[in-house]
UniProtKB/TrEMBL annotation, chain A:
Belongs to the CTU2/NCS2 family. SUPFAM superfamilies: Adenine nucleotide alpha hydrolases-like. Plays a central role in 2-thiolation of mcm(5)S(2)U at tRNA wobble positions of tRNA(Lys), tRNA(Glu) and tRNA(Gln). May act by forming a heterodimer with NCS6/CTU1 that ligates sulfur from thiocarboxylated URM1 onto the uridine of tRNAs at wobble position. This is Cytoplasmic tRNA 2-thiolation protein 2. The gene is LOC112291872. It comes from the Eukaryota. Keywords: Cytoplasm, tRNA processing. GO terms for molecular function: nucleotidyltransferase activity; sulfurtransferase activity; tRNA binding.
Automatic annotation (TrEMBL), chain B:
Residues 329-348 are annotated as: Disordered. It is found in: Cytoplasm. It comes from Physcomitrium patens. SUPFAM superfamilies: Adenine nucleotide alpha hydrolases-like. One of its GO terms (molecular function) is nucleotidyltransferase activity. GO terms for biological process: protein urmylation; tRNA wobble position uridine thiolation. This is Cytoplasmic tRNA 2-thiolation protein 1. Belongs to the TtcA family. CTU1/NCS6/ATPBD3 subfamily. Plays a central role in 2-thiolation of mcm(5)S(2)U at tRNA wobble positions of tRNA(Lys), tRNA(Glu) and tRNA(Gln). Directly binds tRNAs and probably acts by catalyzing adenylation of tRNAs, an intermediate required for 2-thiolation. It is unclear whether it acts as a sulfurtransferase that transfers sulfur from thiocarboxylated URM1 onto the uridine of tRNAs at wobble position. InterPro entries: CTU1-like_ATP-bd, CTU1_C, Ncs6/Tuc1/Ctu1, Rossmann-like_a/b/a_fold, TilS/TtcA_N, tRNA_thiolation_TtcA_Ctu1, UPF0021_CS. The keyword Kinase does not apply. The gene is LOC112278284. Residues 53-244 form the tRNA(Ile)-lysidine/2-thiocytidine synthase N-terminal domain.
Amino acid sequence: MACESGQGCGAGQGCGTNACSSENLCSKDERVFPPNGKKSGVCAKCKEQPTSEDFELCCTCLHTNLISKFKTAVNQNSLVTPADHVLVAFSGGAASRVALEFLREIRLRQQTDLDASRGQGTRVFGLGVVFVDEAAAWSGPSLDLEHTIEEISSIILTESERPVPLHIAKLQDVFEAEGLRSSVGLDEDVGIRSSEEMLQELLRNVEDVTGKEDLVTYLRMQVLQKIAKEHGYTKLVLGVCSSRIAARSIAATAKGQGYSFSADIQYWDSRWPVTVVLPLRDVLARELDVYCRLANLKTVVNKNTLHGTDKSKSINELSREFVSLLQEQNFSREYTITRTMGKLKSFVFNTPPVGPIEMALRRRRGIETPKPETVSAANTVPDLLCPICSAPLDVRDFLHGDVEFTDKSSNNAESPSVNSKGDLPALSSDTFKNMCCPSCRFQILPKNEPKTESMVKALPEVMRDRAVANFEDKQCWMRSRIQEYLLSDDED
Amino acid sequence: MVRHCELCKAKRAALVRPRNRQQVCKDCFYTAFEEEIHQTIVDNKLFNRGDRVAVAASGGKDSTVLAHVLTLLNKRHDYGLDLFLLSIDEGIAGYRDDSLETVKRNETQYGIPLEVVSYKTLYNWTMDEIVKEIGLKNNCTFCGVFRRQALDRGAAKMKAVKMATGHNADDVAETILLNIVRGDIARLARCTSIITGEEGALPRCKPFKYTYEKEIVMYAYFKKLDYFSTECTYSPNAYRGFAREFIKDLEAIRPQAILDIISSGERFRIDSTAKMPEQGLCERCGYISSQKWCKACVLLDGLNRGLPKLGITRTRGKGLANGVENASGGGKLASKDDRSPSKANIDF
């Protein structure tokens, strides 16, 4: 294990385990400090190892720094417990690569401890990896998919520890009612083509470039959730780092997502069937990139995500460029933006539940346990999520809505009707629109009526079901407000 | 083929509205533009009947259009407002003297009185003199702090109960982004309010909060309004420039984005426990301040004592605190010259 202090392990065994490619010994006795405390090309922390790529830390110290941030995030927010079965969403990029590496490292350590205690300790969390192929979203053939999968498999299987299962999914799997491929090697089977067509038809309805990119992101999350749920995972780890949060903060602000955005950037997000956790929230993208190179961690370039949309028309891309420009001027800018947005009030589902064992662990670690929010009796407004992006809806939107939606929907949306199959209640396109957040209404749903209708029909079942549930919750809530004025049928 | 106005369907479309890319004729544009501002005023209850309102006028496009539209709407919808123009003469040769001429013409054109308050009268310093002292770095800090107070003092002198400023949607969006980027959660919470300083004697409102800058320029252009369009001699501000450029790029991709940024700013779930500075009164001049002395008094004191960086650079324990103590205890201890603010002229 790498020395935690960054000051040398003192054992003369070298700090670099699997994280460090350096073979130099790291002994306190052998350290030589420059007289002025500074030395060019030498690690700013241990003052011993050489640095490269204009980065101030050596590989060992960078590893110590990153894993301590990772562990702090995991421990303070109870992101991963021994009872968990953790699924890492692996894109092939540096963030998810490091997240996987650190989880493996922590698990290996826990396993060693467990073995040493002769089974007296707690369990060790389970680990799995999922990769989602998005080629179909961009109407193109899957570029080098087999090669990408091979590379990912080689990353997953390199270590001699317990095997980590790899799940390969396609974005269009969101349309499949059941059945997913859980092993490497994809055989085209019946139904895949039609789901691919469904996906492309859905995306064709979205005219806005940013809207299309965002819809792909929302669909990806649904696929990840589906896989996690079907394979019994209890946590989904995303490699969302501070730099990405900074860029997304600006983009979300420009998309009018100010109310709901704080839900997306917390360590813990249990609004999904499988809780999503962000253990790399406090790490910069550059640190992760440099670490991957220094520690020889192989990353995979997924060509299918590079040729997607016209980047010059994307608010996401423009925001990324804006933040990286600011970052060039000031190295702490991304942190500042993330911290600012981190101060926004999160939602109930962003607070990890604290059981008696966790409470005791927290007390031992000196971590303050947040008190649960007391909900006043008057506050009975239902917590609704947007069917498309799952953003919490602002009460101002779903109560009053835009006039253009509310007026129309009040006439024709008395109750959800049952569709031709007889199994799924269907909402009118206006009512569906009314159940969505303003951002999805604007950038994803088409402006004109017939197109909206076909778009709503083309959405995956999980999204349409959410809209129906929203509608029913809203109706229930409205009914509760007028209950005292309603007469029952048997009342004279 | 002639493109017809999307609103009246009769006249030839003369322009594309930057706000929503609607193709409209000039008359429909004027009507929509004016009525949207009227709606903002009514929905947000910006004014009460009989209010004496100071219209902050710099002579630039925003304040000129604001003076024009407020005069027009006051008559059209019978707001019953007593409007007057309030200008600040910062003492910048070749810039403010020229723009003031424009404001003086506006006075005649709109038939509302004009009051000019100068830095020289209030602080005994002009911006030209301040720049000579401090250079071109931080000069905007002096100007901004002094102008804010000067406007309040001028409005108080004229017994105004409200002030209307020409901040437009682009300005508000830009401020929101800047507050995110520099981590100022307290200002982020406040900056979207359409009325600020309601707890004080002189609330300020922004009738153009939802009005696009390009539409203001368009309105001024088509109405042939008389405004001054030169940038301030000392104005270049790279930091704001980044945000401004980003907003322009956003607007090109999605015009709605400016309003979306404002909507986001209004809806951010900011914890009410976020630390807000407590408002008090300046011990020296009586202006609102969260410190012992208001910022203007600290800056002015620095200028008068030959320490122009006082209040700008962070020299905790040596500079500001001691500076205030010395000056308040010993009066003009180290006065560079015998300048002193002629506060006696204008009570605040």
